[in-house]
Amino acid sequence: MRHGDKIKNLGRKKAHRDALLANLATALITHKRIVTTLAKAKALRTYVEPLLTKTKKGETKEQISHQHRVVFSYLNNKAAVKELFTVVAPKIVSRPGGYTRIIKLGIRPGDNGEMAMIELVDFNEIYGKAVKTATEPAKKTRRGRPKKSAETAAETLAAATESTSTEAAAPEATSTENKAAE
Questions:
Q1: What's the burial of 98, exposed, middle or buried (CB within 10 Å: 0-12/13-18/19+)?
Q2: What pLDDT is stored for residue 153 in this prediction?
C-alpha cells in the first residue's frame, strides 16, 4: 500500500520515471503545450514548476549560471535549457506561481485512458487576450439612470419639449387627413 506516499510512480521504476518526466518537460518547454495522459500531466506539473521557478532566481552571473547547471541536471537537453532561460523566463518573471494549466480532453478510444493537455499559461494566445482586456477599466452598470450634468439636463429638456410639440402637431394632422378621406 502507498499510504502517505506523494510520489506518483506511473508504473515505472525511478530511473525510467525520471527519464520520462525529463523528456515530457523538454517537450513542454519546446512546444509550450503537449497532450498526454492525465496522470503524467499531473506528475509533470510537480516536476516542471520548480524548474520554472529556478529561472527567475539569480541577480548575479554566478547565480544565473548555477541555475542553468541545476536545470540542465534535470532536463539533460541544452536546447530546452536555452529556450527556458531566453524565451520562457522573461514571460513568467511577473507571475508568482502556477505556470502550467491542465485541461482534460476526455478518454482515449483505444484503451480508455484519460487524456489531458498541459500548457504553459503565459503562452496561450486565447487566454492572453482576455487578460489584456481585463486591464482596461470595465464598464460600470447601474440599476437606475445615471445622473446628468446641468448642461446635458438642459439640452435634454429642450429636446423633450421640442419632440412633444412635434408629436402634438402630428396627431392633429393625421386626424384632419382621416376626415378628408371619409
A1: exposed
A2: 61
Average pLDDT for residues 137-147, to the nearest whole number? 64
User: What grid cell was written down for 141?
Assistant: 452598470
DSSP H helical segments within 55-113, as ranges? 61-75, 78-83, 89-92
pTM: 0.68
**Nearest-CA neighbor of 71 among 54, 57, 59, 87?**
54
Q: How many Å apart are CA 80 and CA 2, to the nearest integer?
A: 34
Assess contact for 45 and 118: CB atoms under 8 A: yes
For residues 108 and 118, is the Cβ–Cβ distance under 8 A? no
CA-CA distance, 21 to 41, in Å (whole number)? Answer: 9
Give the whole-angstrom CA distance, residue 73 versus residue 52: 14
pLDDT of residue 175: 52
Confidence of residue 134 (pLDDT cuts 50, 70, 90): very low
**pLDDT number for residue 72:** 97
Concatenate the DSSP letters of all residues of 10-70 into one string.
TTS-HHHHHHHHHHHHHHHHHHSEEEEEHHHHHHHHHHHHHHHHHTT--SSHHHHHHHHHH
- Cα(122)–Cα(181) distance, rounded to whole angstroms? 73
Phi/psi of residue 148, nearest 5 degrees: -105, 155
